[in-house]
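== Sequence and structure of one protein ==
=== Format: two labelled lines per protein ===
==== Data for this protein ====
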Amino acid sequence: MLQVKDPKSGQVLTVADTAPYLAKGWTVTTEQSTAGPTDNPTSQAYAIIDADQNLTPDEKALAKATVDAYSGGIEADASAILRTFDTLKQSTIDPHYADLVNQASYVLKQNVSSLEAQRQNDLEVERANAEETARIAQKNLETSGMLNTGEAVRQLGSEGAPVVPFGGGNIEGLVPKSNRLIATDTQNRYQENLRKEYNTAEAALGTAGVSKLIPAGSTVGGVTGTIPTARTTQLGMTLADVTKNVEAKRKLTSAQPNPVTPIDVK
């Protein structure tokens, strides 16, 4: 059980769930509750962190680690720390890294679109070249009087030659084989270029971030990503800075002497 205080009226309540009150601007008091088990200051700070709906599980873990890293009365200021941290996170950090994610996603989509367009163009060129190569080979065979011979089968294959191969069977032919190897080479280069784009995006966005943008099974897996890593680092630095500032302010306030009321001597 924790105690929450309305800063406007000064009202203090003992509650099990602080979230609804924190959302209305109430703060968790440093006084121990007599209505249930006594929580130490760190537990109070953890409760405040857990009740913050603006934080992801990873961010809550980061906040708890920050609490653990500082001693003194820092736990008692957890509400003030998280309010300031939430404001900075939502107004500056989150928008900045969301822009970076959007930019990386846009670049990936544009590059993949360009590769797909180039692939379609390559396929059209391959088909035209294959037809032209077969036409020239057939014309050369016809000119040399070998169109109805085994040489035609060797050059054009059993499907392209006007004669049945000796002994039957399916013979690919030199011309179809050359066209197939060219098509395989361009297909492999296309797939390799796609993998490079996927890997570049995964390195930036992380496996979790890129998974929704590329086909299943295309990720390396287990990649955190430079953008999520930078965001986590920024959150940690910001939380540490806010914690230091709040703690310094608390110490400064507690160190100030109580004002002395002058006595009016008549």
Q: What stands out?
A: The helical segments are 19-23, 41-51, 57-69, 78-143, 150-160, 174-210, 226-255. The longest helix spans residues 78-143.
